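Note to self: user wants both folds in one dump. Writing first protein now.
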Amino acid sequence: MIPIFQSVALTHRALDYHLERQNVLASNVANVDTPGFRPLELVREDVPTEAPGTLRLETTHGAHVGQSGDATRPFVLTESEEQVVNPGNDGNAVSLEREMSKVAANNIRYEGAVRIVRSQLGLLRYAANDGH
């Protein structure tokens, strides 16, 4: 593959990761009052999938946004290791403040990846139009 397209593929993967992570973090926030709920975290594929409590994310329909051709996502859903030291009386371990700071940080990273993609696509457009 041509190096410019490899970098586009890498940023595409970064966008996918941050989008999926946003969904997981939103689920954690939504379950802040659910008794016994433990926050989840999305990690990159280098985490062994055989680890207890991990689930591989998959695309369930060909029309869903994702990697074309390969239905397996390069991310693993696992229980967050940053557990609250003292869960509430109902066993809920979600710290709203921590989850919201993760949401904000994830949003900043996503926006950074979007800027990189725009720049890469602008360079491709410039090259395709012979520098015009």
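First done. Writing the second protein, which came from a different request thread.
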Amino acid sequence: MRPIMKSSSIIALALAVAIPQAWASDLPNPSLTPGAITQEITQQNIHQTVCIKGYTKTIRPPTNYTNKLKKRQLREYGYNDRNPKHYEEDHLIPLSIGGNPRDPQNLWPEPRKSEWNAAKKDDLEFTLYRMVCDGKISLNEAQAEIASNWIEAWKRYVHVGGKRH
């Protein structure tokens, strides 16, 4: 009986250690990707910039730039799985709320196959974009919320109490 208990304890400890590491990759490493904004985008000019339909298409970097950066960042992040198809090179602070389009400090290889994947972050990005453009949250507040911990921001703004905002 004791060897089973010991084995179970080792398994429990291994799971406790492994789970936070798996979740850690769902958030960017803040020393590598703290987020970066475009200084020219301000609260005063959002309706002439980010809130105009199609604005992000005008500033989105080309895929040859982001694909090259993604490969480099997969190494920098130390991901075991370095298949670029398993990641979206994503802007931590989205372009739709003034994120810098080309600064590597605002781009990171976001896992596609995870509970907290790129599709979930996209939901938050759209929610914050609408809130900024509708005057429900300031541009600076939205940028800070998503840059500090986008998963907690998703829980706060997208899915609260089982209901979407």
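Dump finished. Worth passing along: The CA atoms of residues 112 and 129 lie 22 Å apart.
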